Known about the structure:
The chain is mainly alpha-helical. It is built from 10 helices and no strands.
Amino acid sequence: MSDEQSTPASGRPPRQSRGGLTSTGARKAASKSNRSRAREFALQALYQHLVGGNDVEAIDRFTRDLSGFHKADSVHYDALLRGCINSQVDLDALIAPKLDRTMAEISPIEHASMWIGVYEFQHCPDVPWRVVLNECIELAKEFGGTDGHKYVNAVLNGLAPTLRAAEVEHDRAGKGSAPAQPAAAKADTATDAAADAATDAAADDAADQAAG
């Protein structure tokens, strides 16, 4: 089947209500930065890849036609979509040792959220590690199952000390002030400032999840 004839399987993942906060406490749409929106569209595109195995170009065309895409950071979306698909074997190699089940048992939403998190840990040093973590938790809250965000949190929290070693050590030690951030990172941080406390609270859930 040609790309022109191909329609990505399942369209997009199920999502919860966007009015105010979702039932899981995910952020309302009005508070999201263009990078947050880019991650959402990248998640939907990666979901199509994981579920339907469609060609990346067909997925990209379909996703860019979705309502609201013009509000997203298209450059960041493109980097996440193509970067995750091109490096999926390497991403899975990092994720798999942190799992307590097989990769096949991971939901596509959790899987894609972890891909995005690991990719940003590795390739987006301008985005603070806590922002990456929180953004992926938010994705899993809004698009995934009830407790999927706890599993995403557990895995990414387990990888952060390796992939962002100096930053995590500095942050957790609480030494001095954080280095100046580029404008793009400031936009992400401003969007997620209110949710950072939730990330810390979710770390306790991560510990329980990993222990279980």
